[in-house]
Amino acid sequence: MITLTQLEYIVAVDTYRHFGRAAESCFITQPTLSMQIKKLEEDLEIIIFDRSRHPLLPTDVGQRIIDQARIVLKQNEEINNIVKDHKNQVSGLIRIGIIPTMAPYLLPLFIGNYKKKYPNIFIKVVEETTANIVKLLNKDLIDVGILATPLKEEKINEKPIFYEEMLIYANPTHPIHKLKEITVKDIATPEIWLLSDGHCFRDHVINLCSFWELLIASSLSILKPDHLKHL
Q1: Tell me, which fold does domain 4-82 have in CATH?
Q2: Residue 228's pLDDT band (boundaries 50, 70, 90)?
Q3: H helices within the chain, ranges in order?
Q4: Regarding the domain delimited by 90-146, which CATH topology (the fold level of the hierarchy) does it fall under?
Q5: What is the DSSP string of 206-224?
Q6: Can you give the pTM of this predicted structure?
Q7: What are the pLDDT digits (tens) for 169-188?
């Protein structure tokens, strides 16, 4: 019979890809964790983890079982939350991942009021890049992420909370500073400064510029040859 504890153990191993660190996260010894996972594999008559590979990786069928285990554990948590809500006992830990460009401005708007309303909730805030927040969400290492969308991640449910204008900062002597209106064409230039890899705003700007270049290329492809000399 499969137990919730065994599901917690295989999820932990998948998260950390290491038996020792997984055992530490579950506050048990490594032999205990290994024994429970081995028993689960014997009961199911399949291999969940390929122990010959480094770093440790799940087998194909093992990955499917782990994905389902995450769903089961989440649903079990929801049952406990329903009971707590019925008893007016809202407590526990909420882990929030947020990108650094938003953290100092957005968190003060709601953290204080939320804590006053739910004093028994412990709030843990993790500042990370968009890419790392997505990884943490997919591994259930955080409960919610606050970042720029769209992400187009199949396993993540997105809910917009506000929309923000995209602004351009330019030196007063730069030609773009004299324009009354700035189009995507104007920013599709090598002169633009971007954030480093991993920041969502960087990706959004690149996507905009790439879209413009693709649009130009598509327009050129439908022109007749005798029109090209007039460009």
Answers
A1: Arc Repressor Mutant, subunit A (1.10.10)
A2: very low
A3: 4-16, 19-25, 30-44, 60-86, 103-106, 111-117, 130-138, 184-187, 200-221, 225-228
A4: D-Maltodextrin-Binding Protein; domain 2 (3.40.190)
A5: HHHHHHHHHHHHHHHHTS-
A6: 0.59
A7: 888 888 888 888 887 777 77
